[in-house]
Amino acid sequence: MKVYHGIEKFEPPQFAVVTTGTFDGVHSGHVEILNRIKSLAQQNEGETVVVTFDPHPRTVIHPDIDIKLLHTIEEKIDRLDKAGIDHFVIIPFTKEFSRTSSLTFVRDILIRELQTKLLVIGYDHQFGRNREGSIIELEEFSRMYDFQIEQIEAQTFEDINISSTKIRKALEKGDVATANVFLGYDFMINGEVVHGFKKGKSIGFPTANISVSNSNKIIPASGVYAVEVSLKGKLYGGMLNIGNKPTIGDKLEKSIEVHIFNFDEDIYGTSVQVNFKKRIRSEKKFENIGALGAQLEKDQSEVLEILGL
Fold first, then answer.
1. Is the pLDDT of residue 161 over 60?
2. pLDDT band for position 197 (50/70/90)?
3. Arithmetic mean of pLDDT, 69-87
4. DSSP letters along 113-163, please?
5. 272 touches 191 (CB < 8 A)
6. What gap in Å lies between CA 168 and CA 151, rounded to an integer?
7. Cα Rg of the chain (Å, integer)
8. Number of neighbouring beta carbons within 10 Å of residue 27
C-alpha cells in the first residue's frame, strides 16, 4: 500500500475507486466498505483509494473535549495495509480545512486531485463544513462532475449497528470481548517497555510496564485482562493489569503492566503490541501483598485457560 502524507503527493491511477472518512478502528462496518471498493476496482481494472484525516477532526473542532480514539495513525496504516488497499491518502486536518464547503471538497479534492471515478460511502456519511454534505448533495455533485456513487448500508451484530462510538463505549467498560466482535479482530495497544516500581517481581509476577505515547489512544477500563503480547516477532500469552495498584499505593499514576508467560528477558526500550482477549475482573485493593499474590495465582489460572495455554 502506498501512503501519502498530504494530497499534493498523490498520483491518481487511471480509474480511482475512492472512499473517505475517519475509519477509526477500521471495524467490521468499515471492512464492508473496503471490500466493496476492492471489488469495484477489480471489476473496472482500477485501484482503491482510502482518504482520511489526521488528526481526527473532532480533536481539532472540539479541542476542549477529551476524545479517545481506537487507532493511532500508525495502527490505521497497518490495518488498511492488511486489508489490501492500494493507496492511503492522509489529509492534514486543521481549523482552516474544517471550513471547506462540501462543494469545494468534491470539486477540488475528490475530482481535481484524486480524479475519482467511483465513490463508495457509508450509510451515515457526512462531509464538508459543519457536516453540511450528505448523500443528497453527493448525488447532485456526481451528476455535475461525472462520477458514480454507491452507499453501503449499516452493518449490524445482533441487531446493533456497529460504530466506532459503540466500540469505544465497550472498551470504557472493559468489555473487550464485545469490542473485539465489533472490530472483527482483537483490540490492541502499542507502546514501549519502560521502568516501573518492580513490585511484581517480589511477589513472583514480574511485569513489563508499557508506555503508550499517543495521549489520544483509548485505554480500556481498569482491571485484569487476558492478553497476547507480540514481542520481537513472537507471540506470548500474558496477564495484564490496568490501574493505580491500590494495594501498593493508590496515589500512584495509572499504569499498564503485563506479566508475560514463559518469558524472562530484559526488554526495556523495546516496542510491544498487546492484543486484548478478555477482562477477568476489576481492580481491587487487597489487605496485604500476600493476599494480592494469592489472587494473582487465581488470575493466572483463569487467563491460561482463556488463552488455551
1. yes
2. low
3. 96
4. IT-EEEEEE-TT--BSGGG-B-HHHHHHHHHHHT-EEEEPPPPEETTEE--
5. yes
6. 24
7. 22
8. 24
> C-alpha cell of 249?
499505593
Region of 249 please: left (phi>0), alpha (psi -120 to 50) or beta.
Answer: left
DSSP 3-state of 235: strand
**Burial label, 290 (beta-carbon count in 10 A; 0-12, 13-18, 19+):** exposed
Interval 6-50: pLDDT, tens: 999 899 999 999 999 999 999 988 999 999 999 999 999 999 999
Query: 29-43, 147-161, 224-238: which has the minimum mean pLDDT?
Result: 147-161
Who's near 278: CB < 8 A, 6+ residues apart?
Answer: 176, 177, 225, 226, 306
CA distance 308 to 265: 23
Task: Compute the C-alpha angle 174/180/183, nearest 5°.
Answer: 125
Buried-exposed string 82-108: b where 16+ CB fall within 10 A, e elsewhere? ebebbbbbbbebeeeeeebbbbebbee
According to DSSP, residue 265 is labeled: -
pLDDT, position 284: 83
Q: Using CA atoms of 201, 207, 208, 212 in order, give the dihedral in degrees to the nearest 10.
A: -130
pLDDT for the residue 58: 87
d(CA 40, CA 285): 55
* Cα–Cα distance measured from residue 30 to residue 25, given in angstroms and rounded to the nearest whole number: 8
| Cell 489526521 -> residue | 54
pLDDT band at 198, cuts 50/70/90?
low
How many CB atoms sit inside 10 A of residue 194's CB?
Answer: 13
Give the whole-angstrom CA distance, residue 156 versus residue 162: 6
